[in-house]
Specification:
This protein has about 550 residues and is mainly alpha-helical. It has helices spanning about 5-10, 10-20, 30-50, 55-65, 65-75, 80, 85-95, 105-125, 130-140, 145-170, 180-190, 200-210, 220-230, 240-250, 250-265, 270-280, 285, 290-305, 310-330, 340-345, 350-355, 365-380, 390-400, 405-415, 420-430, 440-460, 470-475, 480-500, 500-515, 520-535, 540-555. Helix 2 packs antiparallel against helix 3 (about 30-50) and helix 2 packs across helix 5. The chain starts with 6 loop residues before the first helix and ends with a helix. InterPro entries: FANCC.
Amino acid sequence: MAQDGTVPKLKFGYWLDKAIEWGQATTLESQQDVCLHLPQLQEFLHQLYETIKDSGSAVAIQQFPLIGQLLGRLCWNPFVIGYDESQKTLMWCLCCLYSSEPRSAVELKANSWVRSLLCHLLSSSKWESNEAETSTFISALGYTSADYYCHLVKNTVFSLVTELRENQFNGLNIQGSISASRVNAVSIFCVPLITLPDLTPLLETLLLYHGGSSKEILSSEFLEAVNEAFLKKKISLPESAVFSLWLRHLPSLEKATLHLLDQLFSIQLNSLEEVACVMKDSLLPQAASHPAIFRIVNEIFKNALMETDGTSGVMTIIQVFTQLFLQVHQNENKQHKFPLKAYFPYHHQPLVRGLVRRPFEFPTTYWSQHLKHISDMLKALVEDTDFSSPTDLFEIWFLVACFGEWLDIAAEQLLKAAVEPDAVLWLLAFYYCPKNENQQRTQTVVEAQAVYSHLMMLFRCTDLSLKDLEVAVHRITGVEQCWNQCLTTHLLTNFLLFSRGGHKIAQECIYHITKTTDTSKEVYNLLIRTAYRFNHSGEENQRTVKLLNELLQKLTLKV
């Protein structure tokens, strides 16, 4: 076989051996093996087509002398041509072997062979039978071929669904029970037909079926194929079936979570309403009402946060997800609701209970008191002499960070309400600088107090210039420590939003600090979080909302 650099990657010989081994898939063993290999075979056929599509028939045959034998065998395998887009890809490959200007008897014969295979594939796609007896029988029933096979599929699915459901309810009836191997075989045979709409009731029944075995009885190939089709929107399943899929197959849950993150990173999202909509559409916040799913998704988010060095965009995604999860959890029927400890088993439970209370559950006059309560509990935990492990410190920081809504409110309350600033500033300092090596956090609190005092002196002023905010701006543009920069940016941005004079210079000031520092994304995420909360609470005046929208439009171009 003539080879170039792409041929070894295609594993041509491997798939030819498989095609010969399978034949027309007449035995149970060969049928199961075909079903297990269909996704990889389809990928191979697509790569083969990409390799030969521009080369011409002569070059394709020179490159792959046995390509005709491979394609010919696959075209007569009903499982192969019935799977997803394999039939279409086979047609594409055959067209590449057709000579538009045949110059020899061999090429003429090859063209005739290609035409016969294309006719076979086209007739197969219309559910036509080559057997006169079968065709006559179907006609006698008053059906066309297409109608007959459609009803045949529906009846087969109905029969299997009924059998599985009866077995589920009569699990103790050993005589009438279905063996685990049979259920496994049914799941394998579903793989090539996953996207067939008539198969959906069977997919749902299989996903909800457990039988009496402690081990997983559905094939992993089936579970992966269902998850893949669901993520690509090729099938629609009830929530209960999707949740069951993720509970019984961890790789599918992991893939769904990573798929959600990829979606959120790959599109320009202009509001957290859009983020929330994408999340709800994924069904992951709803599925997280089960503690096992919540803990795994949370762990994946945690790893994503560490891999991106704690970027504000990832943190905002995690915070929105946590809010959506809390909505689902609070709406759960009390009889089916899991206790909070099931979701946060290793955390200080009074702190968990304080964080999960949503701000709208309290009168705004009580927010300051609740923030001090959270800060005091957190400080007692962190400064406990037995609390020395960096891992423990990170875990408690991540817990607080997940409920970032309270942190944003803390920064607002410093400016808008009568609060105990020391407790609230310590809470914010812990978020931005959880470690206290070389008194880093202590120094952060001291610097934050200086910025806060300066901003409060200017809070009632109606006529401000950028020079008046020089102290705060310098602490953002003139320091190297990221945590000090981020905390000061948080305080200053809120000052611009909520002070009387801040509105007038907000755009100029934010343009200045985002131009001279790498804080564009930090400011942008803070603003969209604030806008999201205002849209759901209606607590702010229209002037502030208008300013928010103007700032977001300016920053969208930068991020």
